[in-house]
Amino acid sequence: MSSGKRILVKGNDAIGMGAIKAGCRFYFGYPITPQNEIPEFMSRELPKIGGEFVQAESELASINMVLGASALGVRSMTSSSSPGISLMQEGLSYMAGQELPAVVINVVRCGPGLGGIAASQGDYFQAVKGGGHGDYHLIVLAPASVQEMYDHTILAFDLADRYRNPAMVLADAILGQMQEPIVEREEEVQEPRKPWALTGAKGRPARHIKSLLLKEGELESHNRLLQEKYREVQKHEIRYNELEVEDAELVVAAFGTSARIARTAVSKARSEGLKVGLFRPVTLFPFPGERLRVLSARVKNFLVVEMNTGQMVEDVRLNVSGDASVFFYGRPGGAIPTPMEVYERIVKHYKEQ
Amino acid sequence: MKPVFSKPKALNDAVMHYCPGCGHGVVHRLVGEALDHFDILDRTVGVAPVGCAVLMYDYFNCDIIEAPHGRPPAVATGMKRSRPDLIIFAYQGDGDLASIGLAEIVHAANRGENVTVIFVNNTVYGMTGGQMAPTTLLGQQTTTSPYGRNLNTDGYPIRMAEMLATLEGTSYVARHAIDTPANILRARKSIFRAFEMQVKDMGFSFVELLTTCPTNWGMSSRESIRRIKEELIPYFPLGVFKEKEVADYI
Ligand code: SF4
Q1: Domain boundaries defined on chain B
Q2: B57 in contact with A, Cβ within 8 Å
Q3: What's the predicted TM-score (pTM) here?
């Protein structure tokens, strides 16, 4: 519980505050806009509390520094934005294969390529479908406020440790750059024991952490165990928010910044008597597909709003019942849908039903 | 009976998968002797490369992690920064260290990370079947330089020890060969010194070893040993290139 004292914080700083609260003392990162406040915050704060900040030579190096620290059982983190996260996919695949926890923050900007520094949700597929090589998943959280930037960073450390898997906070340039009041958590964060960590083989046999599994059948059974783990994550960790879906005839589905924009549009539609609700996935992996399936038994119209050309909409379509209509509205590459545009789509599709 | 020769405690009894005449076994043994000598086996974590030595965890009695290709110095950095009480060594081949991982080794060295890097240079990609390495000699035939390494198209072989010695951040840099008993003893001394630097918090230590890959050189073990002397050493001179007496750290 907290004292309730509200402080005004920038989204990227809230990430740093959450990480330190979660017990993270080791940060490795490389500059890239629009997340530079995170390494700047960590380089300022970590030395004061006995932590280490390393400005890596590249995102390839930062993710591998995280890999090394994580293998020793300590909480460590890196952050970047889209092009830098692409470089990290190698390390993320290794960590997923080696079952190493880690927290990676992606303050998404627009692409492809160098793209631009404005907010986007174009990295949804990369984040939730694996991203690197091999059959694996990250645990992916999608904050929609500065408070959630803080809370989700702490949650990401907990989930990463619980499932021995890298967890990603999928934010964007707007969430990283805006200021909002937050309430800091007061209760201590508990770190689990890590009996698998490399600590020097004192008084025990040597331990190895690897992902090369050459013995007959070994890799297949390792992959099956990983899938089993992802099913556990799906069973226990799905999180979502709903607003006025109970009597809704059309539900808008959106995550992160898009959900905030959609919320304004939904409120406007409601005030004009349209029965419209909002569904916001908080975990993108695990995706709250089951809840969408249940909702779609009654609601037959969904409008997915994203800051891309249609990524999460595929997961919505996969999960809703066959007779539901799924519409999409999105703007790619740094263009941001306005509440008015979303409202107009709501009205259009509401009437079509 | 008094034993006059035994295996280091740091190595287990597993039969190594390395080819007959391969230099990795010798280098493993020298590293193992250093871990025994400084009595650090139970607080050491090794970082394995991608390459023939990826399986080194099967042979050492210490904790070991497998790093992505070329990234051992970054992994070692993350480890040493978070647990400075542990001894961290990276073991890398020429493709791993001098090609795909060039940025990682140069920057770990330049930051003066207090870790030890053992660099096995056999002028060829071993595990993938004998392709051209950044250290492949001019004229040397490999599966991707079938007409011999050509300076016009492939550039020159990289001398890593010399390059790293120019960086202010390095504390100990040496190159040795494992072709003769005398050279092996020199290599042993340098590997010991490299671990000693780390134990004494002296900063980044690096030992390059010129070794054999009879399989991909298409030579017998004996011919391979001779090639080290006749072809490798003239291009990659042996010696200690740098040795700091006191640490830079304040
Ligand atoms: S391929 Fe070459 S380096 Fe690899 S084990 Fe065989 S001899 Fe050694």
Answers
A1: 24-249
A2: yes
A3: 0.97
